[in-house]
């Protein structure tokens, strides 16, 4: 099995300055337990 078979092609993410409530809503909307934090 390869990673591309289990990973989503367009993952949700947030920025370092994303407010916590917004990150929580994103996690709920995408039904995920964590979000990668990316730089601009």
Brief sketch in words of this structure:
Helices cover 25% and strands 0% of the residues. It is mainly alpha-helical and 40 residues long.
What are the salient characteristics of this protein?
40 residues, mainly alpha, 0% strand
Q: What does this molecule look like?
A:
It is a single chain. By secondary structure, the protein is mainly α. 25% of the residues lie in helices and 0% in strands. The chain contains one helix and no strands. The termini are far apart.
Order of helices and strands: H
CA-based gyration radius: 11 Å
Number of strands: 0
Beta-strand content estimate = under 5%
Overall average pLDDT: 91
Q: How widely separated are the two ends?
A: 32 Å
- Structural class determined from secondary elements: mainly alpha
Q: Biggest β-sheet, characterized?
A: none
Tell me, what's the shape?
A: flat
Task: Please write out the topology.
Elements: H1 20-29
């Amino acid at each position: 099995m390869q990673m591309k078979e289990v990973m989503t092609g367009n993952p949700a993410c947030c920025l370092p300055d994303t407010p916590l409530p917004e990150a929580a809503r994103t996690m709920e909307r995408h039904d995920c337990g964590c979000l990668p934090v990316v730089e601009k």
